[in-house]
Amino acid sequence: MPDPQPKPFSYVPVRVTTSDRVTIGHVRYRMVREYPGEIILETEGDDPRRETFTEQEFSRRHLLGEIIIDEGYHSLHKKIPEVIREIPWRNIKPHKRAKAQYFENLIRAYERYVADKGPLPRTVDELGPKMLNLSMEALEVTRKALAGETVHFKKLISVGHFNKIYANYQQSGRKTAALVSKDQGNKRVYYYDEASLKIWREEADLYAHSQRPKKKDKYEDLVARIRDENAARPDRNKLELCSYKVFRRLINELGAYYVVCKRYSKAVADRKFKFDRGGFGLFRPGERVDIDEKVVDLMLLLQYAHIWETLSDDEKEKARRVRVWVIVAMDIATRYIFGMRFCMSPNAQATIDVIQMMMQDKSETSAYVGALSPWFGRCRPETICTDNGSGLVNEEVADVLVECEIPHIRPNADHPEARGHIESSFRSHRRIVRHYQGRTFKDVLEKAGYDPVKTASLPLDLFEQEYTKAILDVYHNTPHEGLGGETPHNSLIRQTQTHKMRPHIGPDILRHIFGMDDTRTLDGEGLRFLGVPYSSPELRMWMAQDGQVEVPIRVNKRDMASISYLRDGKWYIADNQIGLAPDISVAEWLVVWRRIGGDFKKGSEVALDLMYAGLRDLRESGDAAAYRNPLGLRDLTAEKVREAERALIYRSGIKLIKATQHVASLDPPVVRPSAFIDDDAAGFNDPVAEISAYAEAQETARAQAFPKVGAKPTTTIGSPSPSSRRSQVGSASSLKF
């Protein structure tokens, strides 16, 4: 049995091959020899010279961005990445491809009719009578395109549906992929009371039992239990019985490996899922990282913590308002969590933030949340695997993954060994709550004297901190059955000493890819962002040629020393012109501007020394750690930063000048876990407004579902937001080929 005690972390070796180009400063090298603990590089050119580095020193400088590795630069067959903005056509189900082709041929049949016989308004009266003939013509063309395969439709398309697909087709640039059906079944939201839902989940969990019961038998057990429970309850407080379809869906959510392991044995599950001590057929850390999105229902967490019954009705109602999603990136070989972000609903930006977080140093974040175990894991994955969630599969995420040169796969349903690993880990995350015995999550609810919605930001900050702390201290250091009893923390340390990690992306390239987007006007001083001027020789030449122009820029929210600007489709670097020290975040900068901006007259020149003094005070107080490490619900947005810039900097008219003494760097912030981001922090979004909007949507949905007065209070299965519709129960009939 592996030792569960955490192993000390030293460093993670970086993989470099003879086909890679290594750049240190302005000198380019190529690796010629590699010995245990030692790397020998040789300069490129006619007069080569060699330099030797220890493996630890090489890895340290690479993480700092001093050593840049261009993978496969010297390869004779270097692969050029191809941008794929939609789901590859061959990955779409055959009947959906046929349906999309039919829609396209129907649109072309309509356009041919208009070209031959004149305008045909797309109305029920004008287009409706001709829809049958157009459909038959399109159907015949589709049959021929599919090499004579049998193609038929279940019902005639309506005029309204035709207008919808016609608009989508035109807006997408006439792409067939835009016509692929995204229908996932009935989108209605079903409501049930929490007591009934709890019993359903308990009975569904018993399906994973060594006696191997059938789903029908477990459903009959549920019926009997509900009947027995209702016999002792008053009429106005009866439990509800779900349909067999809903119960079967709850069983299917248990996770494939978990079910096989409980019903048969761990050995059988390992063979079925191609499991070994290194993971699901994966031996190298970073070889594959799974990203998934899950709703963190506070009510459900409280039930798992065994404190739901101890809460009052008012506290329970407060808990129902909070529906937070967590997006997790987990390494399959080690089960280590490389990145995690919270959000109010799944979206592309939250997924991009997780991808960026995987490749960043998170030691300051772990110290900020008060974790005893450092969050040292970081990697540039060789492959990322997701399901087809709307926040995971979209154009924005696809573009970022292509720029990072990370392949994106979505396994087919007939390969259970290639999916569902995070599903089981979320079950472990639920059990993490029990370690706190109700202390942490009860604090989220008990804010006496305050409106729970108006003061929601502080409880949510606390929730984020404690959940992240639990992942680092509990989950990472708990023996994992998928690792042969080894902990994810120790597994990552052990395997990285055997298998070297893929090289990281340099800090400038990371800013080009993940930086916060904005637009600035180029003038004689270059580009200004938050009062700091940025310039470069290329910018000065551009100004001399074209004068003042609008320039797209990207900013690293954690380091304002340099920015990226776009010209002719390429990103370039502009450095600050006042000697600003590195590692100063946008959030810290805005806080200091707010504190000192009103103390000077308009047009005053302020030396950078004063800003440094404010930054030092902020870091020594411990508040800077909160602003530098947002966990997702509170975060900087480009829109809010622009608003703060107009209010704090433009109106003040203050001009920054260089410091009287050069400052190479500032001391790192003092960590104070009790520090939180202020509710009115400049540049940050407002989760209180998001929670209020969500609560209003919930109330509206409840009113529609239960129009009668005195309807029983309920909770939901699934979120009513469009992004989570795929998890709701129900089915729908549609046109099939």
Helices and strands in order:
Layout: E1 21-24, E2 27-35, E3 38-43, E4 50-54, H1 55-63, E5 67-70, H2 94-117, H3 124-127, H4 131-145, H5 159-171, E6 191-192, H6 194-205, H7 215-231, H8 244-252, H9 256-263, H10 266-272, E7 289-297, H11 298-304, H12 313-321, E8 323-331, E9 337-343, H13 348-358, H14 363-368, E10 384-385, H15 395-403, E11 408-409, H16 421-432, H17 439-445, H18 457-473, H19 488-496, H20 507-514, E12 516-521, E13 527-529, E14 532-535, H21 537-546, E15 550-556, E16 559-567, E17 570-576, H22 586-596, E18 605-607, H23 608-621, H24 623-628, H25 638-650, E19 655-657, H26 687-705, E20 715-716
Parallel strand pairs: 7-10, 10-11, 18-19
Antiparallel strand pairs: 1-2, 1-5, 2-3, 3-4, 6-20, 7-8, 8-9, 12-15, 13-14, 14-17, 15-16, 16-17
Helix pairs in contact: 2-4, 6-7, 6-8, 9-10, 13-15, 17-18, 22-23
Separation of the first and last Cα atoms: 54 Å
Number of helices: 26
The strand order across the widest sheet is: 12-15-16-17-14-13
Q: Which structural class matches the secondary elements?
A: alpha+beta
Percentage of residues in helical conformation = 25-40%
Oligomer: single chain
Low-confidence region ranges: 77-88, 276-280, 435-458, 709-737
Report the C-alpha radius of gyration, rounded. 29 Å
What sort of overall outline do the alpha carbons produce when their principal axes are compared? globular
Largest sheet descriptor: 6 strands, antiparallel
Mean pLDDT value = 78
Strand content: 5-15%
Number of strands: 20
